[in-house]
């Protein structure tokens, strides 16, 4: 049992290995079609057929095809091929008006199969040549139609044909087809209608078997071209340009006109009539631009005007075009929500219509600089594209005007670019005036529209010094800016960048240097210094006026004149006996022991000053003298201890001490006493100012020394009460030597020359001429 099953499997394996892999029966051929073309005046004796093979084919099991064309009740033709097409050649001629049955059979090692059979009249498979001698005829009496004629490509005895006609304006690729119902008959001419006058048209014709659903369309004939005749022109496209007038409350209106859309010929001119004019004014058509300027008027804001325009060509005049310019304050409602955007290389517009039943149409206007163009849209339009030729990087001001039977409404406008780019240049920046100390005003001009190439989004100002760089962004409508917080006496470089959404462009650098001082700062300094100096001068003058006495005392002290001194009147005319002061009565007084000068002769000048000396001694003995000193007063600083550089006012206010040497027995004569006299040095607390000679003892010593040399001591004869004898020269020399040995001899004070008899002679003045100034009390 098992062995039989194994044996069967082995046999099947051997059979499978002997057969080619993936071999199938052939599929049924599909889409069989056959065609017999025309040659010269007759149909060709060859018929071509093609089909679509079905099924998988391999090189080991190829599929072959056999095409069979059977002429009923006549000959059958067979053609074998391995391709999907084949040709059958008839023996003598094409079997016109006979039935044909055509099929194809596919076969290989695994089987065979036939396609669907085509059983039709022989004319069903014919494709004729296109009509010949196609002609277009234009007639003046029919400016909107053309007559087309052609010739049959094949005689009617062989085949009846039907035709198809198409036409279009010259240069257009949009063909217009004549309905087949109008050309189904066996015809050789046809009239094209509803054409545009004075327009060149191109026409083509083709044909096929007239039997319904049979045959193949021929190729299109060659082009037949002709221009339609002229006709009266259509209504001209009238528009206006309004600008501000030269006067107040006045408008300047310029009427312009395009050729009619249906010109129907060559426009030679226009006729314009304003308001109530009876005779229109002719205007020649402009050949230079896209429109013709008709007339310009000045119209008050509170007035309206109606304008009528007709167009002329070689046939006649057009109907009138009407345009009403309303009062400025009575413009009708505008459209709403106007939107303009670029798309696909065109500018598209969309808006909402005004709420008015009188609306007749819209006028879409676009203006760039001095270039104006417009187009008209019907009242049902809500969205459209501008049909004119627009340029990139150019700003267009697009407006939509609703029209109310020739009366213009209020426009809705917006600016737009078809495409934006970086500006061609940036504005040149410069300074407005001169820079200040810490600020500078920059100004620039707006770029011309043609140089912007887009909407300026902002300006960026860059300014740099040697140490730092800064930038400031300002809005696009700004034309000036003041840089602040600058450093004085510093050089700055500044430039500006203009930006759009698609790029930026920088200007050239402009350099300036800030001032070292702010305007008015130097003047302020000068004025301040001048005012300060003036204040000092005024204060000084006021001090001089109100403090003149103190200034006089401090800067111009009064020097006492010894000749005017009254000190000589204080002492008596007779000499006083100097009593030795008591020991306890000299408290606070410095005592200096000296020897009495025993010279017998003094200078002549010293003699003259003895009375003054006597008065001085008298004043010192009496405590009521110049200084009013008292023996009980406290000791004071001597004149030699006083500060020479001290304040003048302090000197006058402080107590000044005078010193003198008082002999115990006084001056009783020029003859010295046998007993040595003891001199006493005392100091006074007088407030009388010191003389310069007393303040500067060194100077006094020098001056005294000079006077000693200038006035040398000479021996003089002294007289006593009872004798005229002169003193002994030896004694005189001895006294002179003793006198010079005293410390106070340079001052020539307190020296008396005793006489030979020991009696006191007339006191000799020893008051020297004061060298310094005298300071008042």
Automatic annotation (TrEMBL):
Alphabetical keyword list: Disulfide bond, Glycoprotein, Membrane, Receptor, Repeat, Signal, Transmembrane, Transmembrane helix
GO CC term, one of those recorded: plasma membrane
Position of the signal peptide: 1-23
Keyword presence, Nucleotidyltransferase: no
Intracellular or extracellular location(s): Membrane
Sequence intervals crossing the membrane: 525-546
Coiled-coil parts of chain: none
Similarity field: Belongs to the type I cytokine receptor family. Type 2 subfamily.
Gene3D superfamilies: Immunoglobulins
Residue span of region Disordered: 621-650, 664-764
Pfam family, one: fn3
GO molecular-function terms, A-Z: cytokine receptor activity
PROSITE patterns listed in its UniProt record: FN3, HEMATOPO_REC_L_F2
The protein's name in its UniProt record: Fibronectin type-III domain-containing protein
Biased composition (Polar residues): 664-690
Domain of life: Eukaryota
PANTHER family: INTERLEUKIN-27 RECEPTOR SUBUNIT ALPHA
Topology versus the membrane: Single-pass type I membrane protein
Domain Fibronectin type-III: 130-231, 334-422, 423-517
């Amino acid at each position: 049992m098992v062995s039989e099953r194994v044996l069967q499997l082995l046999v099947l394996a051997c059979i499978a290995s002997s057969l080619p892999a993936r071999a199938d029966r052939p599929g049924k051929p599909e889409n069989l079609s056959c065609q017999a073309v025309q040659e010269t005046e007759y149909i060709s004796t060859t018929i071509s057929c093609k089909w679509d093979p079905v099924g998988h084919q391999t090189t080991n099991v190829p599929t072959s095809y056999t095409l069979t064309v059977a002429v009923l009740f006549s000959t059958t033709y067979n053609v074998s091929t391995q391709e999907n097409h084949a040709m059958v050649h008839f023996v003598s001629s094409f079997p016109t008006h006979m039935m044909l049955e055509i099929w194809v059979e596919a076969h290989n090692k695994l089987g065979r199969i036939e396609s669907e059979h085509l059983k039709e009249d022989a004319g069903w498979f014919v494709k004729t040549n296109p009509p010949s001698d196609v002609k277009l005829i234009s007639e003046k009496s029919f400016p909107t139609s053309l007559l087309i004629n052609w010739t049959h490509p094949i005689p009617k005895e062989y085949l009846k044909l039907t035709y198809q006609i198409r036409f279009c304006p010259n240069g257009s690729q949009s063909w217009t087809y004549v309905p087949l119902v109008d050309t189904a008959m066996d015809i050789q001419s046809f009239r094209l209608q509803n054409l545009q006058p004075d327009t060149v048209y191109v026409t083509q014709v083709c044909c096929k078997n007239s039997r319904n659903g049979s045959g193949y369309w021929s190729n299109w004939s060659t082009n037949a071209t002709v221009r339609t005749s002229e006709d009266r022109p259509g209504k001209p496209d009238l528009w206006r340009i309004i600008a501000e007038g030269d006067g107040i409350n006045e408008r300047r209106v310029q009427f312009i006109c395009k050729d009619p859309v249906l010109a129907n010929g060559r426009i030679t001119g226009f006729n314009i009539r304003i308001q109530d004019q009876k005779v229109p004014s002719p205007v020649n058509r402009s050949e230079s631009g896209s429109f013709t300027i008709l007339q310009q008027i000045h119209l008050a804001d509170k007035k309206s005007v109606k304008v009528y325009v007709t167009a002329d060509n070689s046939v006649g005049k057009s109907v009138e075009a009407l345009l009403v310019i309303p009062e400025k304050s009575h413009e009708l409602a505008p459209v709403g929500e106007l939107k303009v955007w670029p798309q696909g290389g065109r500018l598209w517009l969309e808006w909402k219509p005004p709420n008015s039943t009188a609306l007749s149409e819209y006028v879409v206007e676009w203006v760039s600089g001095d270039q104006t163009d417009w187009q008209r849209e019907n009242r049902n339009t809500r969205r459209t594209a501008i049909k004119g030729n627009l340029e990139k990087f150019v700003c267009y001001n697009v407006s939509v005007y609703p029209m109310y039977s020739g009366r213009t409404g209020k426009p809705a406008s917006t600016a737009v670019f078809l495409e934006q780019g970086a500006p061609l240049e940036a504005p040149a920046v410069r300074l407005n005036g001169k820079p200040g100390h810490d600020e500078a005003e920059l100004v620039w001009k707006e770029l011309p529209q043609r140089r912007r190439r887009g909407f300026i989004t902002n300006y960026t100002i860059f300014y740099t010094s040697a140490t730092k760089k800064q930038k400031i962004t300002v809005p696009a409508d700004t034309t000036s800016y003041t840089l602040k917080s600058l450093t004085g006496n510093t050089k700055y470089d500044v430039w500006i960048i203009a930006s759009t959404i698609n790029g930026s462009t920088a200007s050239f650098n402009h350099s300036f240097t800030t001032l070292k001082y702010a305007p008015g700062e130097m003047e302020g300094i000068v004025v301040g210094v001048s005012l300060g100096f003036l204040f000092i001068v005024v204060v000084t003058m006021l001090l001089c006026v109100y403090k003149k006495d103190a200034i006089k005392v401090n800067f111009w002290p009064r020097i006492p004149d010894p000749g005017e001194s009254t000190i000589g009147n204080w002492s008596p005319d007779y000499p006083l006996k100097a009593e030795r002061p008591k020991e306890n009565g000299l408290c606070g007084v410095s005592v200096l022991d000296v020897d009495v000068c025993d010279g017998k002769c003094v200078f002549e000048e010293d003699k003259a000053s003895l009375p003054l000396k006597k008065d001085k001694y008298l004043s010192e003995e009496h405590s009521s003298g110049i200084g009013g000193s008292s023996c009980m007063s406290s000791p004071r600083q001597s004149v030699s201890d006083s500060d020479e550089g001290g304040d003048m006012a302090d000197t006058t206010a402080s107590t000044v001490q005078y010193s003198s040497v008082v002999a115990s027995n006084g001056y009783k004569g020029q003859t010295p006493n046998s007993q040595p006299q003891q001199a006493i040095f005392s100091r006074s607390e007088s407030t009388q100012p010191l003389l310069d000679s007393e303040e500067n003892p060194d100077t006094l010593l020098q001056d005294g020394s000079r006077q000693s040399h200038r006035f040398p001591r000479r021996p003089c004869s002294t007289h006593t009460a009872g004798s005229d004898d002169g003193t002994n020269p030896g004694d005189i020399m001895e006294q002179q030597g003793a006198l010079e040995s005293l410390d106070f001899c340079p001052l020539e004070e307190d020296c008396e020359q005793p006489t030979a008899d020991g009696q006191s002679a007339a006191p000799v003045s020893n008051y020297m001429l004061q060298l310094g100034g005298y300071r008042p009390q």
